[in-house]
Design a protein that fits this description.
Blueprint lengths: L2 E6 L14 E2 L2 E2 L1 H11 L4 E5 L3 H9 L19 H14 L6 E5 L8 H13 L4 E7 L8 E4 L2 E4 L16 E3 L3 E5 H7 L7 E5 L11 H15 L1
Length: 228
């Protein structure tokens, strides 16, 4: 069973410039994802997909491979994660290298651990899943969400406002950290969310979107608390 870890790290971040190699507690944030993949010890190849030469150098110094550069089509703001990993798999196959399983890892996910990657990849195989996706439960029930109309708050779903939280169905969302995928399933469906998806439930303290500078600061604080 050959496995590849694909870390997607383009250079064109808009909201946080040079986000993928910005220093997170003194280290380029990309290094955390590379370290987790290498330490997992289950991947035949740990590679970074990028079009950016500076990111490529950071990746190689951290121990990852950059066997080829990303094309212009998969480097713009409209390329999807599925587009990127499809290009990676196809590029390897042109060189006669085939993988049965892959893990797509985001470059700004310092909370990922080697243990989490090992567990998720085990789930992929044991459950014979198309994909395994880390998810976290919403801390507040979305069913009791409100909207603003003409300057006034209104319940989106009035029938839920008097219900107890524990009586509402638990809802989860994608952690935005990594995806474990069966390569053949991906080749047929060309998607992350495929027909047979297995959840990998995470603790809220190990999940943090990093889209703004405020998110970045919160993530650093959470990371330091977690390490303590």
């Amino acid at each position: 069973m050959k496995r590849v870890a694909i870390i997607t790290a383009r250079g064109g971040s808009k909201r946080i410039p040079r986000k993928n190699i910005r220093l997170f507690l003194g280290r380029p944030i990309l290094e955390y994802s590379i370290d987790a993949a290498l330490q997992a010890g289950i991947f035949d190849e740990v590679m970074v997909s990028t079009e950016d030469r500076e990111i490529a150098e950071v990746a190689k110094k951290a121990g990852a491979k950059v066997p080829f550069f990303r094309s212009g089509e998969t480097s713009d703001d409209f390329a999807t994660t599925a587009d990127v990993i499809a290009e990676v798999i196809e590029s390897y196959e042109k060189e006669g290298i085939y993988f049965e399983q892959m893990c797509c890892i985001y470059p700004t996910a310092p909370f990922i651990t080697a243990d989490a990657l090992r567990t998720a990849m085990q789930l992929l195989e044991q459950e014979q899943a198309d994909s395994v996706i880390p998810v976290v439960k919403f801390s507040f029930p979305p069913q009791r969400g409100v909207v603003i109309e003409n300057g006034r708050l209104k319940p989106k779903w009035p029938e839920n406002m008097q219900k107890r939280s524990q009586d509402l169905e638990a809802l989860y969302h994608d952690c935005g950290q990594f995806y474990c995928l069966n390569v053949e399933s991906f080749r047929q469906q060309r998607a992350i969310w495929m027909k047979h998806v297995v959840p990998f439930v995470q603790d809220e303290k190990t999940v943090q979107d990093i889209d703004t500078l405020e998110d970045w600061e919160i993530a650093q604080m959470k990371y330091q608390l977690m390490k303590r």
